[in-house]
Design a protein that fits this description.
alpha/beta; globular; binds iron/sulfur cluster
Length: 374
């Protein structure tokens, strides 16, 4: 199992909370796409001869690319990788890019999954986040996607937004459920350093985030989605009929992946590397056959901590036998001893040798995982 990630670093506007690498300037778009295609060829042996099971186009906003731009990249991927015939092929998309013709084009390129950046079905909240689409566009994008033939549709929602009442949040969730999609990703708003949101809060032009309110939103989310038969399979992800995001699941299961484009990360089980988050340096590096890449060789401690952190966020939990096999008896004994506290507090349970966070434990997932780090 291996995945490919493409980072298309362009957006029409910058959302207030966003710290992904992207630019609203399209000045270097052609050069970036040319470099990205060259990078695909240069890096084609990074994963050995692994079959590719998932391809994920993220960013940035890949749905901003036109048909010919998308097609030329799809062709190069197909020419250079052994892509499984039933591979999951996801495109992240902004609702206002998803008009009927655009969706037909995307569908014709064999994309079989959409991840739509809906964020909210409330125009005032969308404005507060500096999203460029409207609630109406968000609804229409899902309708059009279904009409065109997409079966796997995910939407993103954001909660914990100042001014978003519990009632409004519940209404957002119910709206999402009513759209009969099979996947929802819901993220707690966080303030990342250097974002517009961070600056606005520091200038007292935006209220500070309220942790208690976020927790209430999280509880409403779990309650409503469970009632609607969504499985909470990862802290921020919910699926119906086991239509999990395979690409993201592979990250959480620490499978190999290869990223293309500025700031994209790659992982081959022993090391992680990432492209420079700078358009000009990325283009120059690829053009001179010296990609601007940073590399981190993962220590046993890094791999141990990542395994614990990622697995505890999922419904499958942390397998104690795997921990012992990969990291030794001593570390699995330490884990078991530390877990006693969380088991007795009802924040964790054991199912088939897997330590899984309970509903209560999920509220503190990152904090609990960090207690097990070495
Ligand atoms: S569309 Fe996505 S990548 Fe672009 S600024 Fe908004 S959140 Fe960031």
């Amino acid at each position: 199992m291996a995945g490919i990630y493409l980072h298309i670093p362009f957006c029409s506007t910058k959302c207030h909370y966003c710290n992904f690498f992207s630019t609203v300037s399209l000045k270097h778009k052609d050069e970036v796409l040319k470099a990205l295609k060259k990078e695909i060829v240069i890096m084609k042996n990074y994963l050995g001869d692994e079959t590719i099971n998932t391809i994920y186009w993220g960013g940035g906003t890949p749905s901003m690319l036109d048909f010919n731009e998308l097609k030329s990249i799809v062709n190069i991927l197909e020419d250079n990788f052994n892509i499984s015939s039933d591979a999951e092929k996801t495109m992240e998309a902004n609702p206002d890019d998803l008009h009927q013709k655009k969706l037909e084009e995307i569908f014709s390129l064999a994309f079989n999954r959409l991840s739509i950046g809906t964020q909210s079905f409330d125009d005032d909240i969308l404005k507060k986040l500096n999203r460029r689409h409207t609630a109406e566009a968000a609804v229409k994008s899902v309708q059009f996607a279904k009409e065109v033939g997409f079966k796997d549709i995910s939407i993103d929602l954001i909660y914990g937004i100042p001014g978003l009442s519990n009632e409004q949040w519940k209404a957002n969730i119910l709206k999402a459920i009513s759209m009969e999609i099979n996947h929802i990703s819901a993220y707690n708003l966080t303030v990342e350093s250097g974002t517009a949101l961070d600056i606005l809060i520091n200038k007292h032009k935006y209220p500070k985030l309220d942790e208690t309110q976020s927790l209430e939103h999280f509880e409403i989310l779990l309650y409503e989605l469970q009632k609607a038969d969504f499985e909470h399979y990862e802290i921020s992800n919910f699926a119906k009929n086991q239509r999990y995001s395979l690409h993201n699941s592979n990250y959480w299961k620490q499978e190999k992946y290869l990223g293309f484009g500025p700031s994209a990360h790659s992982y081959n089980l022993t090391s992680r590397q990432w492209n420079i988050a700078n358009i000009n340096k990325y283009i120059d590096g690829i053009n001179s056959d010296l990609p601007a890449v940073e590399n981190e060789v993962l220590t046993t401690e890094n791999r141990h901590n990542e395994y614990i952190m990622l697995s505890l966020r999922t419904i499958w939990g942390m397998n104690i036998e795997k921990l012992q096999r990969d990291f030794g008896r001593k570390n699995s004994d330490i884990f078991k001893a530390k877990a006693v506290k969380f088991l007795s507090e009802g924040k964790m349970k054991i199912v088939n040798n897997c330590y899984i966070l309970s509903k209560e434990g999920k509220k503190f997932a990152d904090g609990i995982a960090s207690e097990f780090f070495i």
